[in-house]
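sorry for the late reply, my laptop died twice this morning and i had to redo everyting from scratch. anyway the thing you sent over, i finally got around to it. pasting the sequence first so we're on the same page, its 155 residues, then the predicted structure underneath. double check i copied it right bc i was rushing
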Amino acid sequence: MSDNEQTPDKEGLSTRFKITIPQLKNVTFKTCDGLDSEVEVRMIAEGGRMGAPRTARGRQLVSRISFSHGMVSPEASGSSAKTIFDWYQEVCDSSKPLEKKTISITIEDPGGGKIAGWKILNAWPCRWRGPLLSSEMNRLTIEQICFAHEGIEAQ
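ok and here's the structure:
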C-alpha cells in the first residue's frame, strides 16, 4: 500500500492517493495517469436515409494506466519483497504464465477519509520506462510502469 501526499493547492485541499498491488510492499507512486474509459460509438448508415447516420454503442475501451515513482534501493525502502520490475520481467518471460492482479486506487481527503476509489481488473505490467540519466542533472530518478487491464470498477 502506498501513501502519496502533495502540497495543498490554492483552495487549501491536498490530494492523497493510495495504490495497493497484491504481493508488492512499500510501493509509493508520484503520479497515476490513464484512469480512462469510454464506450465505442458505432455509426450505422441505413440505406435510403440521407441524413446523419444512427449511432449505437459498441464495446468498452480502456486506456493503459501508468504510474511513476522515484527509484530507491530495496534496502532504502525497507523491503526485500518482489518489485514491480520483477513482475514486469516475469511478464516478459513467455515460458511463465501471465500473472494478472487487481490494483486498487483510493483517493483520500487530508484527514484520511475515502473520497473515491477504483479497482483495476486483471492488470499486468506491459511497459517499463527507466529514468532519464544525465550527469548534468541533480534530481530524483523517476521510473514509469504501464499496465494493461480488463476494466475499471468503482469501489
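The chain has two helices and ten strands.
thats about all i looked at so far, will dig more tmrw
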